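Feature request disguised as a bug: please show the residue count (293) next to Universal stress protein in the output. Example input:
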Amino acid sequence: MFQRVLICTDFSDGLHRLTHFVSSLALAGMKQIVFLHAVPLWEKGIIPRADTEKIEQAQTRLTETVGESPTDVEVKIEVQSGKPVEIILKVAQTYQSQLIILGSQSRSLLTEKLVGSTMADLSHKTTIPLLVLRPQLISTYTSEELTLRCQHLFRSLLLPYNDTQAANYLVQQVKQLAQQQSDRYLQQCKLCWVLEDTGRREVPKKILPQQAGQTLSQIKADLERVNLQVETEVREGHCVTQILEAATMADISAIAVSSGTIGKLQQWLVSSFAAELLRYSWYPVLFFPPQRG
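Example output, currently without the count:
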C-alpha cells in the first residue's frame, strides 16, 4: 500500500492526534511518516516573514507527542512557514510521499467558493493520492477506537462506479495497489453503481440495472484475480445519497473516488461528484487525482 505518508495538520483538524499512533499506522503498511504543520507568514511588518515563534511552538508540540516508534518506521516532523498548499507540495516532493493525509471541514459550497479549498487546490497540482479525514470523526474517537482505525485505514474500500473514464481509472488504481502491497492491508472492496433517477417517465434510463450488473461482474472478476474480496451492488436514486447509504451498510474503511473534472478550481467545486461527496461524507475519502496528460 502506501509506505511513505505525509500527514498534514493545522491543530484544529484532530490529525495531530495521530502522532500517538505511529505503531498502529505501521500495521497499515507505513514505513515513513512525516507530520507537517504550515505556519502562516508574519505579515504585521512591511515584508512578510517566517513566524519563528509559532514555528518553534508547533515543532515542540509535535515532537513531544510523538511516542516511541517501531524501529522499522521513520518519523519526521516538518514545520514551515508559508502558503499551505505550496508547503505540502514541496515537502511531499522532498520525501517522495505516496499519500497525503489531510483534514477537511464540512463547509457549504458558498464557503468553498469564497475561501477556496486546500483539498481542491491540491487535487489540481499533484497526482499523489489524498486521504481526507473528517476532523469531527478523528477528534471523537477514543484511543482504543483510533488504534483500530489506524491499523485498518485501507482494509475495505467502497468504489462508486459508472463506467466513465474517471471510474475506470479509479478501478485500475485500486487494482494496482492490491498488486503492489506487501501484505493484505487492502482486503476487500465494494463496487456500487448508482443509476441516477430523473423522476421523469418520459426520460428513459441510458443504462438498465441488469446491464450495470453485468459490467460490475466483469470488473469483480478482474479484481478478484489480485486477491481481493469483491461485492457489487446496483442502486437507483441520487448518486451521493445512495453512495453514502451503501457505505453505511457495507462496513467500509473509506470511500475511494477519482474525478475527471480538471479545469478551474471553481469548476471542480461546482460540478465534481468527488467534491460533493467530500462535502457530505463522514467517511474517510481516498481521492486519486487524474493523471496529467
